[in-house]
UniProtKB/TrEMBL annotation:
InterPro entries: NRAMP_fam
Record's protein name: Natural resistance-associated macrophage protein
Entry-linked NCBIfam families: nramp, Nramp_1
Membrane topology: Multi-pass membrane protein
Organism per entry: Phytophthora infestans
Keyword Transmembrane helix among UniProt keywords: yes
Taxonomic classification: Eukaryota, Sar, Stramenopiles, Oomycota, Peronosporomycetes
GO molecular function: cadmium ion transmembrane transporter activity; manganese ion transmembrane transporter activity
């Protein structure tokens, strides 16, 4: 469920609308790699009897433990902001509630889930299964109505390619799919079913079923992500809009802005800037009428519209204009299910991270109150700015996805360090871990290159700002290098 949060869905819809099926291979291979990390996390918890956060506290010096804990808390709070905003946007689509009211409702509903959870794991598990079923049904209906090209979907998965203007989308998708706190969560969730102490055979059997469970769950998550990408690729992608970001004469060039072909009615309702498909210049709008000089774009289905940015907030109106009101309602229900389900997984992850790193046992409702309070402030600010000042809430979600990409080492390096440690894993140590180390180093290299290009494309930073980035990067790099060198130092 943590692979299907609102931030993930926003990355999906923007990937489809901005780059068609070009980045489907990023989704596929990120899911495969994420699945391998989940399997390792489950094996770590099963074989050691401790989850990843507990092992970090036991193995690392205190200052390193606290630094990694802070990094994970930032990730969890960022995800919480996405969940609050995503659910409030869905409530706005369904009931026309102001975003800030939706934020308040969403901030409180987590306590309802905690009440359900207190009545036993089975009830919360059934609720999660219900939410997964709702998401599958909703997004599959929109997928079938859209009638995407199966050939193009297959090519998008099989053929790796990326244009310069789609770099930021690739980074965001990487962070949205391989989320650091999921690794901590999965290593803890297997504890209740661990066979540690029952002998080698039962532990191996448990590891097999934990791995099978992770593979099946991630296969379903990939299908849902593919459904969302395909819906927006088949209905809103336009080569004209896609090429604006590569045209030096357009207003979007070098600004980190990408656009899709949004139906005229939805484009005017959103309040976002509209760009001419031929020049990339911002079009003037008077009394709800777009200037005649503003050239229209056309989707791959030859439906006319205007080049415009799209995010979760604009997606409902866009889907309604292209597929009808029922499709819009179905999309919103799926988004609500996504927000609520990921809220539950985020709550569990936050609890395990705090308890493991700090050896601090607090009531779940207190933990939720702390996290939600920290997330609610930024979410309310974004909601109010979006509602009354024309701010793009999707920018925040994109930046959070990029932040999650940057935080990956603080989950993956400890995971690989401990799962290759024979003292901890015993005879359950495997060669696949060593292969994953090589893959992870390659992932970090690609990730940091893309993040640097994202900063260059998306932000016009001054020399002072770059100096601040350099200071943060130095501390960050030193911590990552220490974690990577830890097995050699000890």
């Amino acid at each position: 469920m943590a692979y299907l949060d609102p931030g993930n869905l926003e990355a999906d819809l923007q990937s489809g609308a901005y780059s068609r099926y070009e980045l489907l291979y990023v989704t596929f291979w990120s899911t495969v790699l994420g699945g391998l990390y989940q399997v390792l996390a489950a094996r770590l918890g099963s074989c050691t009897g401790r989850h990843l956060a507990e092992l970090c506290r036991a193995e690392y010096p205190r200052f390193v433990t606290y630094a990694v804990w802070v990094m994970m808390e930032l990730v969890i709070i960022g995800c919480d902001i996405q969940e609050v905003l995503g659910t409030s946007i869905a409530l706005q689509i369904l009931f026309e509630l102001p975003l800030w009211i939706g934020c308040l409702i969403t901030a409180l509903d987590t306590f309802t889930f905690l009440a359900i959870d207190r009545h036993g794991d089975n009830k919360s598990s059934r609720l999660l299964e219900t939410l997964i079923g709702i998401m599958c049904a909703c997004f599959f209906v929109d997928f079938t109505v859209s009638k995407p090209s199966g050939t193009e979907i297959a090519k998008g998965i099989a053929i790796p390619r990326i244009d310069d203007q789609n770099v930021m989308q690739a980074v965001g998708m990487l962070g949205a799919i391989i989320m650091p706190h999921n690794v901590y969560l999965h290593s803890a969730l297997v504890q209740s079913r661990s066979r540690r102490g029952a002998g080698t055979g039962p532990v191996k059997e448990a590891n097999f079923y934990f791995g099978l469970e992770a593979v099946l769950a991630l296969f379903v998550s990939f299908l849902i992500n593919m459904f969302v990408i395909s819906v927006f690729a088949s209905n809103f992608y336009s080569e004209q809009c896609d090429q604006l970001a590569a045209d030096p004469s357009s207003d979007v060039y070098g600004a980190g802005i990408q656009t899709a072909c949004i139906p005229a009615a939805a484009a005017l309702v959103s309040g976002n800037d509209i760009y001419s498909a031929s020049t990339g210049l911002v079009c003037s709008i008077e009394n709800g009428v777009v200037a005649v000089a503003c050239t229209r774009c056309y989707t791959i289905k030859h439906i006319g519209g205007y080049c415009q940015q799209v995010g979760l907030k604009e997606a409902g109106a866009a889907v309604s204009s292209s597929l009808g009101q029922y499709a819009k309602a179905i999309w919103a229900v799926g988004l609500v299910a996504s927000g609520q389900a990921s809220t539950m997984t985020g709550t569990y992850a936050g609890q395990f991270v705090m308890e493991g790193f700090l050896d601090l046992r607090i009531a779940a409702w207190k933990r939720v109150a702390i996290t939600r309070t920290m997330a609610l402030g930024p979410a309310l600010v974004v909601a109010l700015l979006t509602e009354y000042d024309g701010f793009h809430s999707d920018i925040v979600s994109e930046m959070i996805n990029v932040m999650q990409s940057v935080q990956l080492p603080f989950a993956l390096v400890p995971l690989l360090t401990f799962t290759t440690n024979k003292r901890l894993m015993g005879q359950h140590n495997r060669w696949i871990n060593l292969a994953l180390i090589v893959g992870t180093l390659a992932l970090f290299g690609v990730n940091y290159t893309l993040v640097f290009r994202t900063l260059q494309q998306g932000f016009d930073l001054s020399s002072n700002a770059w100096a601040a980035v350099a200071v943060v990067a130095t501390f960050y790099g030193a911590l990552v290098l220490y974690l990577m060198a830890f097995p050699l130092l000890h």
